[in-house]
Structures are given as structure tokens and as C-alpha cells.
Backbone:
């Protein structure tokens, strides 16, 4: 497997495949991350799909990483509550946001897209009386 060539969208530096411990130290849960060459001055990185060297999306700084985690959690509630299957949920976001399948990953989402997705998920959960309106 070869590392993928990607650039940091914030500063334009190349991303370097590094052991996750480079960023997270002993707390590292994953094996590898793509980390901006400007790290730690530029705090941008992204994890990889398990068993591959494929990045989960674009490099992200703290706020965006947090938004993407929250968006994932909101979406996971849809299949945890059996409103949709995971596959249907991803089909729904492709349709809802008019995305091609390769962009229909939360790892590609901007903060704006994450907040839109969270709001949409919450609307569905409210309609199913899973969360209070
Ligand atoms: Zn950078």
C-alpha cells in the first residue's frame, strides 16, 4: 500500500502519513494519520479507513474535526433507532445535499455541511419522537 498524496486545505503543505502517536501520543487509538507537514503550527490531520492508507476525507483542524464527529453521531442515531439502515442514511444525504457518492462522506464535509446535516437528522429524530422538539 502506498500513501495517498494529499495537501492541507488550510496552508497548502503536503500531508504526511505518520503514526497516530505523533499527534495523540500514548492516547492514540488509530495506527496512522495524515498530518499536515506544518503540524503542530497547523493543527490539521485526518484518520484513515481501517486496513487501508486511504484518508477518511480532507485534513481538518479542531473545530471541523469536532463538527464531523457530532455529525457522525447525529447520523448514527438514524440507524441506531432503526429509522433507516446505514446504507439508506448515506443514500439520503447524497440525495438531500445533491452529492456524488465520493463526496457523500462526512470526512469531506465543511462545518456548514456538518451543521446542516445535524439539523436535518434532528428534524427526523423529532418527527419520530426520539428527541424532544
Ligand atoms: Zn496545514
Residues:
Amino acid at each position: 500500500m502506498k500513501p495517498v498524496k494529499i495537501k492541507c486545505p488550510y496552508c497548502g503543505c503536503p500531508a504526511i502519513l505518520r503514526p497516530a502517536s505523533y499527534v495523540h501520543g500514548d492516547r492514540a487509538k488509530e495506527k496512522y494519520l495524515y498530518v499536515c507537514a506544518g503540524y503542530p503550527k497547523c493543527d490539521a490531520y485526518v484518520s484513515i479507513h481501517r486496513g487501508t492508507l486511504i484518508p477518511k476525507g480532507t485534513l481538518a483542524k479542531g473545530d471541523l474535526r469536532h463538527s464531523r464527529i457530532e455529525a457522525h453521531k447525529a447520523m448514527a442515531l438514524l440507524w441506531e433507532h432503526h429509522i433507516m439502515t446505514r446504507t439508506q442514511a448515506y443514500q439520503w444525504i447524497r440525495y438531500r445535499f445533491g452529492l456524488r457518492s465520493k463526496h457523500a462522506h462526512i470526512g469531506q464535509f465543511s462545518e456548514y455541511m456538518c451543521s446542516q446535516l445535524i439539523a436535518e437528522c434532528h428534524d427526523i429524530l423529532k418527527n419520530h419522537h426520539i428527541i424532544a422538539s
Notes: The chain has four helices and three strands. The beta strands are 15-19, 32-36, 45-47.
